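S.,

Sequence below, as promised.
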Amino acid sequence: MPSVGVMSDQLTVVLGGTGRTGRRVVEALQRDGHPVRAASRGGSGPGTVRFDWTDDDTWEAALTGATRLYLMAPDGTPVDPGFVARAVESGVRRIVLLSSGAVEEMGDQRLLDAERLVQDCGAEWTVLRPSWFDQNFDEGFFRPGVMAGEVVMPVGDLRQAFVDAGAVAAVAAAALTRDGHAGQVYEVRGPEALTFDEAVATIARVSGRRVRFVGDPGAYRDALTAAGQPGEVTEAELAAFAALRARGDDEPDDVVERLTGRPPTTFPDYAAAAAARGAWRD
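The prediction came back faster than expected:
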């Protein structure tokens, strides 16, 4: 861990503060004694305020007194330039943005726009581009497939460095509270690159469920057509995943250990812990 200055008396507001990464960022900051305010659509509980991207009346309560901001928006929701401008005007001096890996290759304009927005906002900024979260399999959009016995993704045997959401949160907390990360775009990856087939097989083994992976684009198209998704949306997704395959396999990196002083959790360890707490029980 770098021996650099620590901003210990600054209030951080964490958007999505009860969500997959946000709640872990809140926990990481609290463990190290940093003042933190969780902002979420529900807005219930101690230290939590209501925040809604579509309701700018909720923005002031989230930002008042804050000097640091963990910035994220739910999938499909753009980061509002007006909110970022208001954050800087209200005294936010450091922003850490949750983006995603391979945004250029996959043409994720929403996140590319968000990256440019924070880079031009006048505050110190750090962009995090994590690989696929491990927790997508037990908290996110892969879980229904695991429970149904089939995970379908049009990526073939592409290797990805799945990363634990807790590791991403620890990196975010370091960038928020320690100097030396301004102007950095960090790819945040796990310690090994696995195929989806290997990841799903690991989950099947530790959970005792019969789960298989299907990586064929045609099967993906058929599944989404059957689910009623418009064809043009499916074809755009297939084009993005084709670009991801063309990008090639991930290479693990040292960002997590370098910024936090701890190696990231391996996928087998994540899966074993999730299975032990009943993540994939009926």
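Residues 12-133+163-189+251-264 form a domain with the Rossmann fold fold (CATH 3.40.50.720).

Coffee later?
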